């Protein structure tokens, strides 16, 4: 598989470089506050604090930060799975605020793909049936060739009839990727997509993500704790206490690791 970086795919911090190209996803001054559950005035948690970020179309971004820094919350707000307390999010130029639940659900189905650490495949369905699910949920009867092509994209055309229990972890994650990509989403989000895989299998999945960006122009945004995984991205955005604390372009694993060590040891 060819591993090739896109020239110029990059990143915006605080929307200072919006001229790089159209944003697949844009967050403007996003704050997400969780109430404590004990009524007003009792504090709660500010998981995201005035975050402005843009994910340019056709780029691969890794999001890193210490535990509790807001990575998953950022992903959920950016993927329209959660609503910010304030600020705005737009996907493919469509602002999410004010959209009804029905329209949000449709937008998520049509424009967003999601892969998780735990694959989330249905164990009783074959790989092909799992991949077909998003289309069935959207009311479409998927053509067999379409499913085969989606599995072919992740190198699993020959495994269409296998159930998840008959596949390795890496193969299961590739089925999950095919399922996430079957609707041709504008953005693919990954919440630690390689977190449950051994390092050799992780590399295969990361090379596949890289290839999707380089060859097909897919936009990928991935939360990870692994500096090696982050080094496959065009840039790494670092969060600390719900705020963007900086970013690295064309990162190496060593640079990411050094930055993370600093963030985890130096009080901000
Ligand atoms: N549903 C919720 N209700 C209350 N607080 C929440 C909720 N979800 C997240 N938080 C809090 O928001 C903060 C950010 O959480 P988040 O899960 O986004 O962090 P994270 O960087 O993804 O953490 P980790 O690396 O440990 O998964 C944490 O303090 C967390 O406890």
From TrEMBL:
User: A Pfam family in this protein?
Assistant: ABC_tran
Read off the InterPro entries from this record.
Answer: AAA+_ATPase, ABC_transporter-like_ATP-bd, ABC_transporter-like_CS, ABC_transpr_LolD-like, MacB-like_ATP-bd, P-loop_NTPase
Keyword Transport assigned: yes
Q: Which GO terms describe its cellular component?
A: membrane protein complex; plasma membrane
What keywords are assigned to this protein? ATP-binding, Nucleotide-binding, Transport
Query: Could you tell me one molecular function GO term of this UniProt entry?
Result: ATP hydrolysis activity
Q: What is this protein called?
A: ABC transporter ATP-binding protein
Per the UniProt record, the source organism is: Streptomyces sparsogenes DSM 40356
């Amino acid at each position: 598989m060819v591993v090739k970086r896109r020239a110029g795919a990059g990143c915006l911090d605080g929307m200072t470089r919006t001229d790089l190209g159209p944003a697949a996803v844009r967050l403007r001054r996003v704050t997400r506050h969780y109430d404590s559950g004990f009524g007003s005035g009792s504090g709660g948690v500010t998981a995201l604090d005035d975050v402005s970020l843009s994910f340019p179309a056709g780029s691969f971004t890794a999001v890193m930060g210490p535990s509790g820094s807001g990575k998953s919350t950022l992903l959920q707000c950016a993927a329209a799975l959660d609503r910010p307390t304030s600020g705005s999010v737009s996907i493919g130029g469509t602002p999410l605020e004010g959209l009804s639940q029905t329209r949000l659900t449709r937008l998520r189905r049509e424009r967003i793909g999601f892969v998780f650490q735990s694959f989330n495949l249905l164990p009783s369905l074959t790989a092909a049936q799992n991949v077909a699910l998003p289309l069935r949920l959207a009311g479409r009867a998927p053509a067999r060739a379409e499913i085969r092509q989606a599995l072919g994209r992740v190198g699993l055309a020959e495994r269409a009839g296998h159930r998840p229990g008959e596949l390795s972890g890496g193969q299961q994650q590739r089925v999950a990727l095919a399922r996430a990509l079957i609707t041709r989403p504008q953005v693919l989000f990954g919440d630690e997509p390689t977190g449950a895989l051994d390092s050799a299998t992780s590399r295969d999945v990361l090379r596949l993500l890289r290839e999707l960006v380089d060859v097909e122009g897919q936009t990928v945004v991935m939360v990870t704790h692994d500096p090696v995984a982050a080094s496959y991205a065009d840039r790494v955005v670092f969060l600390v206490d719900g705020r963007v604390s900086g970013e690295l372009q064309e990162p190496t694993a060593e640079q990411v690791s050094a930055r993370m060590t600093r963030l985890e040891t130096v009080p901000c």
